[in-house]
Structure to design on (187 residues):
């Protein structure tokens, strides 16, 4: 089965019609046969057209975007998408960076970007741990109060009113296990 060149275009708002048109033009020039497009912010948790595009891609296909920021909202997001393509045997091309993961140089560049993202995350976590240790030392850190425990009195009150566990869970938006844990503590 011949491979397909798949394009993905995204703008953050509906007002960015010229930006979308430019991406679509560049994707067509790059030989994209199937193009997925959407107009929504990358901070939105759901990007349905990107999800459809990734699901559509098959082994041997080439997935093309004009710019890295059109595809991923963070380096961690990029690594996740890259890994999904890699597992499927799909090549990723980022036009403005001239990255093509079918070449050794393209694979190197993607791995460097992934390594940098991992390094940044480790540095951030290390700083966070140091900050927490310092705050504990100064007596300023108590950790996050368990969400359900803050609603313990309400759980008990609703149970006393004869509400079922499911009704309590729905009313207070806490997990079933949290409700049981609170009620068991009273036994």
């Amino acid at each position: 089965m011949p491979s397909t060149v798949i394009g993905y275009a995204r703008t953050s708002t509906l007002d960015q019609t010229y930006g979308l048109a430019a991406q679509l033009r560049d994707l067509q020039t790059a030989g994209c046969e199937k193009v997925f497009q959407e107009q929504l912010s990358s901070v939105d948790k759901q990007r349905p057209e990107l999800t459809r595009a990734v699901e559509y891609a098959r082994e041997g296909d080439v997935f093309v975007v004009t710019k890295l920021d059109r595809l991923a909202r963070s380096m961690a997001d990029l690594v996740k998408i890259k890994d999904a393509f890699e597992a499927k045997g799909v090549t990723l091309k980022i036009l403005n960076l001239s990255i093509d993961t079918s070449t050794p140089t393209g694979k190197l560049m993607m791995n460097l970007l992934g390594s940098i993202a991992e390094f940044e995350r480790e540095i951030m976590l290390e700083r966070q741990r140091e900050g927490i240790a310092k705050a504990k030392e100064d007596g300023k850190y108590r950790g996050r109060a368990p969400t359900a425990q803050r609603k313990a009195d309400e759980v008990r009150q609703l149970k006393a009113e004869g509400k079922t566990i499911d009704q309590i869970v729905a009313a207070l938006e806490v997990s079933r296990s949290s409700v049981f844990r609170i009620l068991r503590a009273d036994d």
Remarks:
- Residues 147 and 174 are 8 Å apart (CA to CA).
